[in-house]
Structures are given as C-alpha cells and as structure tokens.
Design goal:
extended; alpha+beta; 31% helix; single chain; 85 residues
Length: 85
C-alpha cells in the first residue's frame, strides 16, 4: 500500500535565495508512506521548487511523470547497456 500527501505553497517570500531561481512560483513537499514486506511502514519526504502555480494536482502529475520517465530510462540503460554492471 502507498499513500501520498502533497502540500504546496506560493508563500516563498521567506526564501532568501529565491532570486537565484528564475520563475520560482511555489514550493511543494510530497510525503509518501509505504507499507513494505513484513508490515513495516516507511515514510519519505521530497521537496520541490518549481515554476508552477500552487496547483497540487498539476504538481503531483509532473512529479509522477518525471519518475516514470526516469525509471523507464534507467531500466533501459541498465538492461541494454549494462550501465550498473
């Protein structure tokens, strides 16, 4: 089982380095809870800075889409080119 919780805000005035990221509009935190083998639960938090407005559905779609590409690309490289060998 996996549960995701996404929090997004456009309140970025407190970020001192915000001018270093052109187009920065929001930050997001994605918390993922997974039940793994043996019933143990793990929690992972990932943080994102982005140019998207604070639209949780759009940001979650972008995050999941990115990892789908990453996972399929890395699998191809590992299998085809034995990159991890």
């Amino acid at each position: 089982m996996e549960a995701r919780h996404l929090v997004v805000t456009e309140d970025i005035d407190w970020i001192r380095e915000k001018d270093d990221w052109s187009g920065l509009r929001s930050i997001a935190m994605l918390e993922t809870e997974r039940e793994v083998i043996g019933g143990k639960t793990t929690t992972e938090r990932r943080y994102f800075i982005n140019s998207l407005a604070a639209n949780a559905a759009q940001i979650l779609t972008a995050v999941c889409g990115h990892w789908a590409i990453e996972n399929s690309l890395h699998w191809c490289l590992d299998v085809s080119y034995r990159e991890d060998a």
